[in-house]
Amino acid sequence: MALNDIDAAVESFKKALEFEPNDAGIKKELAAAKKKISDRRDLERKAYSKMFQ
Questions:
Q1: Which keywords does this Swiss-Prot/TrEMBL entry list (predicted)?
Q2: How far apart are CA 12 and CA 15, in angstroms?
């Protein structure tokens, strides 16, 4: 996430959960990364919706 590669971070967190399924820190960071992806998609939708009006 520090490198701004959110998609790769999500994949890394998912792999980490396979090894440590009960680690609360990993779950927290995974949720934060997924939220950033969701926020990014929302911004993209708003930008593209203005483009096609």
A1: Isomerase
A2: 5
